[in-house]
Amino acid sequence: RPNVGKSSLLNAWSQSDRAIVTDLPGTTRDIVESQLVVGGVPVQVLDTAGIRDTLDQVEKIGVERSLTAAQNADLVLLVIEATTSWSAADQEIYEQVQHRSLILVINKTDLAPAEKVSYPDSIKNIVATAATNNQGIDALEKAILEKVHSGNLKAADLDLAINRRQAAALIRAKTSLEQVQATIAEQLPWDFWTIDLRGAIQALGEITGEEVTESVLERIFSRFCIGK
């Protein structure tokens, strides 16, 4: 719907003024694109015109483009506001995109609690945000990453954005795993190939941000006889 804070959400998320924001419904009439990186995954975010019946010909074209963008999106962020209840307009929009992978974003929670907002039971992924206060962005990114890693998000051209440090870590991990394969092929003792496997795990931990401590490694290799 118009005026639920979609453009404010994009601006808060991208930390920019990509989209024009006013209190007037129908301000956004064309699609505004922003390129973001969420947990290493490049994301193209489209801020679209609010979907509603209108006699304004320019806004009507924007609404048609919004529907087309939603139909072709890998993931739909259906934004509503916490200050109003689920409306017939919300239901109509939802019915047009419910076949897509979807996250319901309840915005303006700085004005009203998200818990009081009703929505269809079929919606399972919900995130509360307050775009004007930059609240809920981390939760939104987490929900998006969960969609990506679940395998349910059928992106047409999903790739990873990595920096030089991460690329170097990937190369080290690949090299270590190749050394593991060679060591196994030569039928050397386990304590030889687990050294390289340990190196691969540590390199991948640098990329994911997960701390691979000695205690974790000890649990992984507890079944092996590792030379000290």
TrEMBL record:
Keywords, sorted A to Z: GTP-binding, Nucleotide-binding, Potassium, tRNA processing
Superkingdom of origin organism: Bacteria
GO BP term, pick one: tRNA wobble uridine modification
One Gene Ontology cellular component annotation held by this UniProt entry: cytosol
Keyword flag GTP-binding: yes
A single MF term (Gene Ontology): GTP binding
One Pfam family per UniProt: MnmE_helical
Domain TrmE-type G: 1-149
NCBIfam families, sorted: mnmE_trmE_thdF, small_GTP
Protein name in the entry: tRNA uridine-5-carboxymethylaminomethyl(34) synthesis GTPase MnmE
